[in-house]
Amino acid sequence: MIKTKDLAFSYQGKVNFNFPDIQIENGETLLITGGSGKGKTTLLHLLGGLLRPKKGSILIDETSIATLSDKKLDQFRGKNIGLVLQQSHFVEAFSVLENISMASWLATGKKSEEKAKSLLKQLDLEDQMHKLTSQLSIGQQQRVSIARALINEPKLLLADEPTSSLDDENAFKVADLLSSLSKEYKASLIIVTHDQRLKDRFSNQISL
Amino acid sequence: MITKLAWKNIWFKPLNTVLSVILLTASVAIISLLILLQEQFEKQFSSNIDGVDVVLGAQGSPLQLILSSVYQVDAPTGNISYDDAKIWMKHPFVKSAIPLAFGDNYRGFKIVGTTPEYLEKFGGKVISGKIFDKNLEVVVGSEIAKKLNIKVGDKFFGSHGDALEGEVHEEFEYVVSGIASQTGKVVDNLILSNIQSVWQMHDNHEHSEAEENPDHGEEGHMHFEGDEQEHHDHETHPENTASVSENGKEITAVLIKFRNKMGFVTWPRLVAQNTKMQAASPAVEINRLFSLFGIGLEALQYLAYGIMLISGISIFIALYNTLKERKYEFALLRVSGASRLQLLSLVLFESILLCFTGFILGTIVGRIALVLISSTTDEQYKMTFDPFAFVWEKEGILFIVTIFVGILAALIPAVKAYRLNISKTLANA
Predict the structure, then answer these.
(1) Model ipTM?
(2) How does pLDDT run across A164-180, given as a tens digit for each residue?
(3) Is A97 part of the contact surface with chain B (CB cutoff 8 Å)?
(4) Smallest Cα–Cα separation from A206: which of A15, A193, A196, A48?
(5) What percentage of residues in chain B have a pLDDT greater than 70?
(6) What's chain A's average pLDDT?
(7) Which residues in chain A have their CB less than 8 angstroms from residue B11's CB?
(8) Chain A: residue nearest B331 by CA?
(9) What residues of chain A, 46 to 75, have a C-beta less than 8 Å from chain B?
(10) Whose C-alpha in A94, B78, B253, B256 is 20 to 30 A from the C-alpha of B96?
């Protein structure tokens, strides 16, 4: 469950954002839309604990992440928040499987290779798992980053324009996976996008 | 996992890595080679001086006298009269005096006429057979026995001079009476006989070869008046051991040990004032030699540290350059739960791993070089170096310096990774 209250942020005191309160339950999906410059990505980074709010509170389950120390926040983020970005980045020197085990190791100290393998199977990436990530297509890369975001069974899954660089077929595939897997893992899913294809698909939306 | 990531990252961009590792390997190899050479060289040189306060020999370069008579590496300065030398050997200041006479070699190994005290001075014992007693009996050093597979009772002919190709003395045959124990000093590579053997060998040689060999009297070889051969020595030797007269005979040098410090000060001066011989101190000459070497060694060492500095810069540039491409990777690791410290240690680790690899390779390459050098010096100077010896203190310092270079090179990139702004990095993606 995610709950924000009176969230505000400013970049060096010049650009100010005030965000509407958000509340979604586990397994639910929320689409955040809005034109560029409205602070979509800023809100996502606030929710993901990558930025600290100027004021207001963010509750993920019972934890107020705005007041966590840096170190605790790093740990909390690793365990409870999964992030999917418009462009996927990976540890280039690692294979697909190692990239996912790495995310598990950083959060929990365990490599959970079996779980990573079954997740990759679920995402139809079984044959790619020993390849380098640079050898995959963009659609495949996006699915690997979904697997990476889900390996630690996070409470909150954040997606920043996850489909905008994909063709229709892959965009729908990714959207389906995001919504079905977040339900399966009982994670709240928040997608930031201006992609019309997603707007048509998810009904629960707010606009900034 | 961080170690694995660091290791994989290093080899993901192999060209940068190989350059840095090669530079590091080169510098570590040079430095560790110098450390080993210097250490073992000085040890070998110093250990051979033990028990020799001065060397009495013919006039000429004192360093040459020391090198030839103590280390057996240079040509002798010339010969001195045994009669003259005996006066000074019996001087009250002198505790012990070991005469040396050079003349022949066997397959490049010098045959030295001396007394059994010479072997004892080096702490050597006869481990099989017995010490040389009669003329033409020899005790063979342990290294020679091993290399040429010589056993007690074997017989061989010596060749004239110190060159392998010297003319063979076919008139007399040496008999191996004993094999010496291993001492790690020059005596391991010498064949020892009594002085009379050397005289006897050249006595007859002189007779047969004198007419055909006008330039025979070159320095360092035994030569004397053959017609005094009949005069027998009645003082010290029983008839059966010394069949050659001491009168008018020459030797090459005498190793002197004094009873007290007084001898050290006055005895060499007395020799210089009263005779045509010289007394040279091995300690002084070897110090002089080392200080000459020292300049060269030091210069090489500076060069090696210079290479290490360059390799440090090369690591720095490689890390710094890839930082731009890798900042997404770093941001992503942070998103996945990595702390700032983990990123800092990742970058430091990569650099330290490189340096560690370079150090290990350098240590190995340095030792391979030492083996090569050792085989050359063994051939030419009968001097070997042990590649498996470790000079823990100096090599430890070298290791610390290497790792320090690694840390220093990675410091700025590591701090940059530590301070990376994840949100900004990902937002601009």
Answers:
(1) 0.87
(2) 888 888 888 888 888 88
(3) no
(4) A193
(5) 88
(6) 88
(7) 93
(8) A89
(9) 48, 50-51, 70-71, 74-75
(10) B78
Average pLDDT, chain B: 82
pLDDT of residue B370: 92
Output helix, strand, coil percentages for chain A, rounded to the nearest 5.
40, 25, 35
Distant-in-sequence, close-in-space partners of B215: CB < 8 Å, separation ≥ 6: none
- Could you report the per-residue pLDDT of B228-250, keeping only the tens digit for each? 434 443 433 443 444 566 777 88
> How is domain A2-207 classified at the CATH fold level?
Rossmann fold (3.40.50)
Q: Which residues of A touch B333 (CB under 8 A)?
A: 91, 102, 106
Q: How far out from the chain centre does Cα A155 lie?
A: 10
Chain B residues 383-422 within an 8 A CB cutoff of chain A: 422
Q: Are A154 and A80 in contact (CB under 8 A)?
A: yes
Tokens of A144: 């690997």
B192 touches chain A (CB under 8 A): no
- Three-point CA angle A183, A185, A190, nearest 5°: 60
Distances (CA, A) of B38 to B26, B33, B113, B305: 18, 8, 31, 17
Q: Encoding tokens for residue B275?
A: 């005779």
H or E element at residue A207: strand A205-207
Give the containing element (helix H, strand E) for B156.
strand B155-156
Collect all residues of chain B within an 8 Å Cβ-Cβ radius of residue A94.
Answer: 5, 8
**A95 touching chain B per CB within 8 A:** no
A85 interaction partners in chain B (CB closer than 8 Å): 426, 429
User: B401 or B201: which carries more pLDDT confidence?
Assistant: B401
pLDDT tens-place string over residues B320-337: 888 888 888 898 888 888
Are the beta carbons of B422 and A89 separated by less than 8 Å? no
pLDDT mean over A8-24:
87
User: What distance in Å separates the CA atoms of residue A88 and residue A58, rounded to the nearest whole number?
Assistant: 26
- Confidence label for B209 from pLDDT (cuts 50, 70 and 90): very low
Per the CB < 8 A criterion, the answer to whether B420 and B343 are in contact is yes
Q: DSSP code of A124?
A: T
Domain ranges in chain A?
Answer: 2-207
pLDDT digits (tens, 9 = 90+) for B24-66: 999 999 999 988 888 888 887 888 887 888 999 999 899 999 8
Q: What are phi and psi of A95, to 5 degrees?
A: -75, 170
Strands A23-24 vs B137-140: parallel, antiparallel or unpaired? unpaired
